[in-house]
Amino acid sequence: MTVPEHDVSDAIDTNDHSIARVQSLGSGSSGNAFLIEHGESSFLLDCGVGIRTIIHAMNVRHQTIADLDAVLVTHEHIDHIRTLPQVLGPNIPVIASKGTFDRTRIRDQQWLSITPSAPIQIAGASIWALTVRHDAAEPCGFLIELPGATISVLTDLGSWRDELLEPLLASDLIVLEANHDLEMLRCGPYPAHLKRRVASDVGHLSNEHCGAVLADVAKRGPRTPTVWLAHLSGTNNRPEVAKATVDAALDRIDRDLSITPLPRRTPGPVWTPSENRSGETNRNGPIARPATQLSFDGI
């Protein structure tokens, strides 16, 4: 299976400013970035891909980088901040934890400190920090609440925390790491110390663990979210392997979700809430969509 390459302009109706849209601009050790839009608002979550990719993505939407309402940074590793100095104009706020701020070149006056205890309200969005375990100073994932859509992004986490389940249950789009296949990592070319780092509690989430998490979401959740598998290793994984592992975990509980492995080096598909609403069913029939009150105690 080859992950399809998507032009940044695929599936974008630039005349419809009322719907939420999300696109991955790259997901992997070579660079990570997500462009999130609603109405006239736009956010860049991480900026580890090439600056030309980001500029083109904005231009397709008749915008420039200066039109960004905020940049969200998960942590300080280079594949998440490579182009941060080029993206940051003088008036673009950066949402990041204190630990990430301390290790990046974010100007004091542009930094919006985020903690798990309360969301940041900006440009019509509520943005929550989700605590994750990873070998960085103070890494986090994000949950973004927009009118009519809720998106969770967890791209680098070595182990699962049960407190993360609530945000995923509230999400219409889940972006979750499926970094490696355990057997491919064990038998692969990485030196022993790097294998231990990847598989550690502060490394990266495996396909198997990702599948178990998503099976729990599908079993407990009132929604049928779209799922994007993120941060696939180019050495210890394959898109078809990641998808098959997650699908097998869902098959064991008789559930279906839309699962898409994201391209590592190129833009991915464009998601809108209509994807979910057009076919919210599982194998036992339609799924209701009750309102979810978010609290995130202990995140």
TrEMBL record:
Sample GO molecular function, one term: hydrolase activity
Q: Which InterPro entries match?
A: Metallo-B-lactamas (IPR001279), RibonucZ/Hydroxyglut_hydro (IPR036866), WalJ/YycJ-like (IPR052533)
Q: Kindly state which keywords UniProt assigns to this record, in alphabetical order.
A: Cell cycle, Cell division, Hydrolase
SUPFAM superfamilies in the record, alphabetically? Metallo-hydrolase/oxidoreductase (SSF56281)
Please, one GO biological process term?
A: cell division
Where are the compositionally biased (Polar residues) regions?
273-284
Query: Region entry Disordered: which residue ranges?
Result: 259-299
User: What Gene3D superfamilies does the entry give?
Assistant: Ribonuclease Z/Hydroxyacylglutathione hydrolase-like
Start and end residues of each Metallo-beta-lactamase domain: 30-193
In terms of Pfam families, this protein maps to: Lactamase_B_2 (PF12706)
Q: Which domain of life is it from?
A: Bacteria
SMART domains, sorted:
Lactamase_B
- What PANTHER family does the record point to? EXODEOXYRIBONUCLEASE WALJ (PTHR47619:SF1), METALLO-HYDROLASE YYCJ-RELATED (PTHR47619)
Q: Please identify the protein, giving its name as recorded.
A: Zn-dependent hydrolase YycJ/WalJ, required for cell wall metabolism and coordination of cell division with DNA replication
Q: What is the source species?
A: uncultured Thermomicrobiales bacterium
* Taxonomic classification: Bacteria, Pseudomonadati, Thermomicrobiota, Thermomicrobia, Thermomicrobiales
